[in-house]
């Protein structure tokens, strides 16, 4: 199977997965139909299905249009709010597209109906792929909009974290540089964070994606997967892994990259003389 990484909107990723023997294709998070259709035409494949990770517009807004343009298109997801949904899937449900196998992994928290998709081909030497939407990012994790730290902890450790270490991680956004700057604040001594950040900056300069990473790598620099490590406990002042994760998320929510060089506040030129007639009336 071949995965095409398509950057759309400001920093989103849309993916097209191609089953090479049948030339069928599956899209993950089809936000921009025009871009997707261009690539489908260029690759000469037939779009059979869309897998939507969650209902947010920057992941799902192309569904209706694509369903209209591609009769018989199947739209999978776990949330009724997903546009043009035809197949509601549940945790650990498996789907087959030619030689491609998909396991749905329910990871509620960023949204209450968030689904990740784990994909592989039987008998293929290629590493499996995880489409992690806005649950797991390269170097980070999604905001807890509709869920709790307990849920994200389960998602990251028991569901996604338990997948084979060589799994390639294809996430929903290009947030890597920002995420790793925060990771470096959390673990200033972590050499792997420093190295990955330097690499990600370089990719950014060249306008190249930082996906995919591997799960194995993520465990070395992603603070949200490292909640039992001593530097994380030190940074958050907590020991319980769920509390470490909760504090980490709050810190990340408040983490802003420092402004370049803020301008000094503008001096107000104020001529009291102009207002004196009014002032005198008082
Ligand atoms: Zn989202």
Automatic annotation (TrEMBL):
<dbReference type="GO" id="GO:0004416">
    <property type="term" value="F:hydroxyacylglutathione hydrolase activity"/>
</dbReference>
<comment type="similarity">
    <text>Belongs to the metallo-beta-lactamase superfamily. Glyoxalase II family.</text>
</comment>
<dbReference type="InterPro" id="IPR001279">
    <property type="entry name" value="Metallo-B-lactamas"/>
</dbReference>
<dbReference type="InterPro" id="IPR032282">
    <property type="entry name" value="HAGH_C"/>
</dbReference>
<dbReference type="GO" id="GO:0019243">
    <property type="term" value="P:methylglyoxal catabolic process to D-lactate via S-lactoyl-glutathione"/>
</dbReference>
<keyword id="KW-0479">Metal-binding</keyword>
<keyword id="KW-0378">Hydrolase</keyword>
<keyword id="KW-0862">Zinc</keyword>
<feature type="domain" description="Metallo-beta-lactamase">
    <location>
        <begin position="11"/>
        <end position="173"/>
    </location>
</feature>
<dbReference type="InterPro" id="IPR035680">
    <property type="entry name" value="Clx_II_MBL"/>
</dbReference>
<protein>
    <submittedName>
        <fullName>Hydroxyacylglutathione hydrolase like</fullName>
    </submittedName>
</protein>
<dbReference type="InterPro" id="IPR036866">
    <property type="entry name" value="RibonucZ/Hydroxyglut_hydro"/>
</dbReference>
<dbReference type="Pfam" id="PF16123">
    <property type="entry name" value="HAGH_C"/>
</dbReference>
<dbReference type="Pfam" id="PF00753">
    <property type="entry name" value="Lactamase_B"/>
</dbReference>
<dbReference type="GO" id="GO:0046872">
    <property type="term" value="F:metal ion binding"/>
</dbReference>
<dbReference type="InterPro" id="IPR017782">
    <property type="entry name" value="Hydroxyacylglutathione_Hdrlase"/>
</dbReference>
């Amino acid at each position: 199977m071949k995965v095409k990484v398509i950057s759309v909107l400001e920093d989103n990723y849309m993916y097209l997965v191609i089953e090479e023997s049948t030339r069928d294709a599956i899209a993950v998070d089809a936000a921009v139909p025009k871009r997707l259709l261009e690539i489908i035409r260029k690759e000469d494949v037939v779009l059979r299905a869309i897998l939507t990770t969650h209902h947010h517009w920057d992941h799902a807004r192309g569904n209706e249009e694509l369903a209209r343009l591609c009769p018989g298109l199947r739209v999978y997801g776990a949330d009724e709010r997903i546009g043009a949904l035809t197949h509601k899937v549940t945790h650990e449900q498996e789907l087959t597209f030619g030689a491609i196998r998909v396991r749905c992994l329910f990871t509620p928290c960023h949204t209450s109906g968030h689904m990740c998709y784990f994909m592989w081909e039987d008998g293929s030497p290629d590493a499996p792929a995880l489409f992690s939407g806005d649950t797991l990012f390269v170097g980070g994790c999604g905001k807890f909009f509709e869920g709790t730290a307990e849920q994200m902890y389960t998602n990251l450790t028991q569901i996604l974290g338990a997948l084979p270490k060589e799994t390639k991680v294809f996430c929903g956004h290009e947030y890597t540089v920002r995420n790793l700057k925060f990771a470096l604040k959390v673990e200033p001594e972590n050499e792997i964070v420093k190295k990955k950040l330097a690499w990600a900056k370089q990719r950014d300069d060249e306008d190249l994606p930082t996906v995919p990473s591997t799960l194995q790598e993520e465990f070395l620099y992603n603070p949200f997967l490292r909640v039992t490590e001593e530097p994380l406990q030190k940074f958050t002042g907590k020991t319980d892994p769920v509390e470490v994760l909760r504090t980490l998320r709050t810190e990340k929510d408040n983490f802003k990259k420092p402004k370049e060089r803020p301008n000094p506040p503008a001096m107000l030129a104020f001529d009291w003389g102009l207002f004196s007639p009014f002032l005198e009336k008082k």
